[in-house]
Model the fold of this input.
Amino acid sequence: MTSRWLYSLLLWLATPLIRAYLRRRAKKQPAYLEHWDERWARYSGPAPQPYDYWLHAVSVGEMRAAAPLIRALRQRDPTARLLLSCMTPTGRETARELYGDSGDGPGADVVYLPYDRPAAVRRFLARFSPRCGLLLETELWPNLIHGCADAGVPLLLVNARLSAKSAHGYARVRWLLAPALARLGAVLAQGSDDAERLALLGARHVKVCGNLKYDNQADAAVVARGRDWRALFGDRPVLLVASSREGEEALLLDGLDALPARTLLIIVPRHPQRFDDVAALIKARGLPLLRRSGWAATPMPDDVRVLLGDSMGELAAWYACADVAVIGGSILPFGSQNLIEACALGCPVLLGPSTFNFADAAREALAAGAAWQGQDAPALLREAAALLDDPPRRQAMGEAGAGFAERHRGATARVLAVLDRHLSVRR
Done:
């Protein structure tokens, strides 16, 4: 109890810093100033009707990962009331785009999860009265977990992952996290390594259920859009840099000459607030640039060397039109972005050395022959060049990726089975 009191006091003292952080982020992304009161669980108007399911996903990647689970919940109970919470404006926008309006039932309501202060947690739970809660991946908020347990709200950590690096950091505050983790209804881990690390951190009722991302089916219309784009590129080789992180674009642009002549490089930054910065980076190198926002899906001019994917919700289309994809976040030590979607769509994958966020998926994709891993940007560009000149090998990697993704599906059904047991006990 003393540890929670100290944590809560430190969080309260940090409130001015949190406010300053939000205002600083708002200079590039003004949406950080919107829905301000929700971040402190201050609400106006009458409370809504209680929610059947509440799911929390911190931002875009986690919100997209939740799609199979949300789809399954809606299919079995189209009238269920669904609340989604997040922490970022892009996460909120993604939730609205994907789940805010359902053709087969009521749309989901979207709010910010308040910062982890005890009073704010109590107000949040009293306002929305969820029947149960699902936290995605690594959202470990001690006061939230204790608050749900005290209020009798079953709370599950689903699609849970914990890298070795994160586990080492969390171990320093095990005195705070262990009591909270022990009060979770269940911890449903992506892999055995994640399960072991979470158990060592203090979690109980740990079960390996697999990764929900394997169950995420790309929108057929978006994939078809990408196939149509590919026809507009003619016979040019196409290399995609998917979900790139800060510093990675420069490393790849500097080695562009290693690629076959006429290669079209498509760069899709991970964060939309960086679109303009990446465009400036490309222009500074004197490379002819076209932005997706200024491209009317007409035949690609031969002089365009780089296409900047400055749009949201089209990553599946980019995979569908690429010959090879470099997965962002893996070149510099960010831990990699999601490689599963590329594999599922049959796109050969190149990974840099940093894959701790997708350690199991990366290891298994490499073993299946769906991916190749290099130690730096020059190595990735050399391998990309070799693949772009080798259609049979690309086809083999693409087929291996599709098979690898198919074999790992089924996490959604396993999560729902555990959730049903907890809800039946509560009844």
